[in-house]
Design a protein that fits this description.
The complex is a heterodimer. Chain A is α/β, with parallel strands linked by helices. Chain A has one domain (about 5-85, about 150-240): 3-Layer(aba) Sandwich (Rossmann fold), CATH 3.40.50. Chain A has 8 helices and 10 strands. Chain A has helices at about 45-50, 95-105, 110-120, 135-145, 165-180, 190-200, 215-220, 220-230; strands at about 5-15, 20-30, 35, 60-65, 65-70, 80, 150-155, 185-190, 200-205, 210-215. In chain A, the strands form 2 sheets. In chain A, strands 6-7-8-3-9-10 form a 6-stranded mixed β-sheet, with helices on both faces. Chain A has a 4-stranded antiparallel β-sheet with strand order 2-1-4-5, covered by helices on one side. In chain A, a hairpin with a 2-residue loop joins strand 1 and strand 2 (about 20-30). In chain A, about 40% of the residues are buried. Chain B is mostly helical. Helices cover about 85% and strands about 0% of the residues of chain B. Classes of the chains: A alpha/beta, B mainly alpha. The interface between A and B is medium-sized, with 35 and 24 residues.
Chain lengths: ~240, ~270
Amino acid sequence: MADIVLDVNSVSVELGGARVIEDITLQVERGSTVAIIGPNGAGKTTLLRAVLGLVPLASGSITLFGVPIAQLGDLRKRVGYVPQRLEYDRYLPLTVKEMLRAYVPHALLSRIEYALQEVGVHRMLHHPIGKLSGGQLQRVVIALNLLREPEILFLDEPATGVDVEGESRFYDIIERLREQHHLTVVLVSHDLSVVTRYASQVLCMNRRLLCFGPPARALDAEMIRLVYGQDVALYLHQEHQP
Amino acid sequence: MMEILQYPFFQRALIASVLLGFSLPLIGVFVVTRRLSFFSETIAHSAFTGLALSALLMTPAMPTVIAVAVLVTLAIVFTLHRTEIPTDTVIGVYLALCAGVGILLLGVLQGYQTGLFQFLFGDILALAWEDVWLVVVMCAGSVVAVLAMWNALLRVSVHREMAMAMGTSAVRVDLLFLVLLAVMVTLSLKLIGIVLVTAMLLLPAAAARNLTRSFRGMTLLACTIGGVSSVLGLYASYWFGTASGAAIVVTAAVVFILSVVFRRGG
């Protein structure tokens, strides 16, 4: 029997009186990578925020580790989250080490250094976070999550604002960490190449659920047209052919 | 310079101003980081309403003023939590409400001005030893409270939703910090007045922010600037025969201006 970590059951969310997502159902197996895709305004981020318990549900239910999301309590320690971008004060004099210590107060310095090394930003320990590039900062946030040793990691378009090469490197890191740390990954993305390359399951949505399954099966030309509303198709690049 | 130290009123003023000069910036670094300077102004203005109510209801002034400040804080947090109105607008609404109700009630109580002026301008040179002990207790309490909340405050300051997703109760952190801020501002009002409270919360923290690269460095420097400005300002007021609170504010403001001039990369 599949080990279900996250169970989203007929969830609808209303924001400001308008129904933003409607009747979404999703089950995430332990160790899988699930990508949530859809056009702008499809409700992808809202779904992620609902799963994290940050917005109230209009109807439906969400359980994480078999526990209703509102009653997670200490189980939240097993949840990791990488937001789209850290909208913080760029001029705040706060070093990477201080930020990591705020989230993981009892982490040994050697563990902090190792986590930063894992994501390739070990030289940034004493840098103010405002001096980091977008990609470096996102990798610091990944390191922060690794220090907390989560079982499930949620990422909301984590490579927004990062260049193409940086984005590819970023997702390679996520994939490597997923394997090494036995993580379950749920990520929001609008990038179909990311989805086909890294996701074991894809959920397409445009307020409502449009498809759910392995990318090769769920993402046919008709579905992509439905999701993105234009003539977009998937082509397997020579490099990636077996 | 030293002869003034033999006077008990100056000893009391020196102890109180150094303690407040050290502990208010400790809270101030988070006030600056979380952009809450408008909130501390609102709490200071809630003293109008508190004072008027205490006169009307014939209740002790300080507990009434603190109760009103805490009530206003709870109302602000509740409104922010229940609506999607921007923070500065919500705080502005309560600032207007506090000032309006206070002035209305004080108008009803014509002739009542003594307590009001003491709260508005304070007089650090007029402190009794009981006041100094109050300062000792409130400063010790605020230092312990801020250090206990340190990591949670930083988490909520960096990214509120990430902190919440990882298990930090942002509303509880907000509530505890704002109530602490409200109580500290209110208790300080009678001792040093509205102007000095806001100045000691903001100026040292703002100056330190300009000169440091780490949050720890910012905090230590802010507390040092606060303490040193208090001593220098107090002595300056003695030399030049000026109001002590104003001299402390001007000293801290000069440090802030210097920090702008000598800012890293600036």
